[in-house]
Amino acid sequence: MSNYYAKWLENADSIYKSELESILDRTSDIEDRFYQTVPFGTGGMRGLLGAGTNRINYHTIRLVAEGLARQIEGQGEAAKVRGVVIAYDTRHFSQEFAYETAGVLARHGIQSYIFTESRPTPELSFAVRYLHAVAGVVITASHNPKEYNGFKVYGEDGAQLTPAFADEIVSHMDAVEDIFEIRSMTKDELLASGYCTEVLEKIDDAYNNALMGLMQRPDIEKNLNIVYTPLHGSGLKPTVRGLKEAGFTNIHIVEEQAVQDGAFPTVPYPNPEEQAAFEMAIQLGNKTGAELLLATDPDADRLGVAVKEAGYDQYRLLTGNQLGALLLHYILSTKKEKGTLPANGAMVKTIVTSELGAAVAESFGVTTINTLTGFKFIAEQMAHFEETGEHTFLFGYEESYGYLAGDFVRDKDAVQIALLTAEMAAYYMNEGKSLLEVLDSLYAKFGQYREKLISLTFDGLEGQQKISAIMANLRAFAPKEIAGLRVARVEDYKTGIATLADGTEVAIELPNSNVLKFILEDGSWICARPSGTEPKCKFYIGLVNQEDSVVNQIEKELLQYAN
């Protein structure tokens, strides 16, 4: 029996006792719960709810809050006064964990500002900057299933943590000798302590005012028929308010999914990337004749979009790559028309995002900058632009349905993109075009870009080992040819070296990361990386002017490395 298990059985909060007792004779369950502490990194920590060090619970929440508190203490008294903004989504225990975090901070004399209702992750990013706080915390597991929750930390710039900041928090967590000695406060004690201020309306108003400044064509006719679903999450109030104040009045809410419920009772997986998440929105769209369907995930940092196909009584979901390219083209073409396109403009995207956006940007004389996967790297570039004046940020996005147009937020923001997407769809509708027709025109001009994501799930300790083995095999037996196409360049971000077909090696000017990318002779590419937040190994495929058969063959060859 694990020593950790025995200690938890004796000391854990009473709500976990029966859960721990139920696995007394199940060695594999005990091992899964205690073989590690939920990993904490630049994206925070995320895991299954439950008892154990490898679960999200009151004790692991207190542990990471303690690590953050000690890090802030090390910055001095001024940092403690500036404090930490805390937000949470609608998941099970999210609000409780938020107040628990504030209680740990208060015991260190650190001020906190906590939202009294669930609010989107991007609004937390905004609030950190608006209140000049030293850090921010949001309790969320983003688009994961109902069994998950998590703890994300933001720096004073409103962006996810730098590796150095994350490492400091981890070092303080590691220094905690007994997790059960960490103390928090009850909510009543916290509010009476003087170290916690509850906030809501002031931040909501300021955030909404910033949203209004993003509109590219505020005076166009906005008679678009919209269906919106928050998928039981935190996006409902800011998204609906923003749409209405921007001039969109014909909005239909999926009422069953407007109920804030961490069980997500109407969707198996509250992820707007998935067709199943749109089922009820599609039903309402068919009933109301909506031209545009919008869906935000539980913490409203990801946006999914579906539009009706011309001549067909059905809706088609846009991929993250497609919506990103459409929005980029709309923003750049509008700025060019109005004479406001800066000479030093830049678009930022990740290395696994389609190159269609880069082609669009180039056509407007806009620089494309590639980053590693993770919006924190896009935010890092935004900060660099501010410091140096080298570029003006115009748009940032990643293929996984994350986008950003306004620099008042430093993480992907589904609320602002819902407004911009609605405006874009209304503008083109007034011009007699659908978003799909505009997308087809981009393909006609720049080439037929096609992308696919293969996501393989491997749970537990064995799963981690399997993912490591897949990446090791890809490195040891790197293909020279994929689907009949020669590999022209292999980029290994773990070593920071790119190897050309003739053996020439060149340095990669990005941080080290466990990522492999294969560039094919026709400009197509394949990328492999372990997920940073889920037990998955992901293969990304990006093709140009290739048939479906090539996609299928590439997938077949890649999956051999997973067997």
Written description of the protein model:
- The chain is globular, with a radius of gyration of 24 Å.
- Helix content is 39%, strand content 21%.
- It is α/β, with parallel strands linked by helices.
- The protein folds into 3 domains: 3-199, Alpha-D-Glucose-1,6-Bisphosphate, Chain A, domain 3 (3-Layer(aba) Sandwich), CATH 3.40.120.10; 212-444, Alpha-D-Glucose-1,6-Bisphosphate, Chain A, domain 3 (3-Layer(aba) Sandwich); 449-562, TATA-Binding Protein, CATH 3.30.310.50.
- The chain contains 19 helices and 23 strands.
- Strands 16, 17, 18, 19, 20, 21, 22 and 23 form an 8-stranded antiparallel beta sheet that branches.
List strands and helices in order, with pairings:
Blueprint: H1 3-11, H2 17-21, H3 27-34, E1 45-48, H4 58-73, H5 77-82, E2 84-88, H6 94-107, E3 112-115, H7 121-130, E4 135-139, E5 148-154, H8 163-174, H9 187-193, E6 196-199, H10 201-212, E7 226-229, H11 236-245, E8 251-253, H12 279-288, E9 292-296, E10 303-308, E11 315-317, H13 320-338, E12 345-350, H14 356-363, E13 367-371, H15 375-388, E14 392-398, E15 402-404, H16 414-430, H17 435-446, E16 449-457, H18 460-476, E17 481-482, E18 485-492, E19 497-500, E20 505-507, E21 516-520, E22 525-530, E23 536-544, H19 548-559
Parallel strand pairs: 2-3, 2-4, 3-6, 7-8, 7-9, 12-13, 12-14
Antiparallel strand pairs: 1-5, 4-5, 9-10, 10-11, 14-15, 16-23, 17-18, 18-19, 18-21, 19-20, 21-22, 22-23
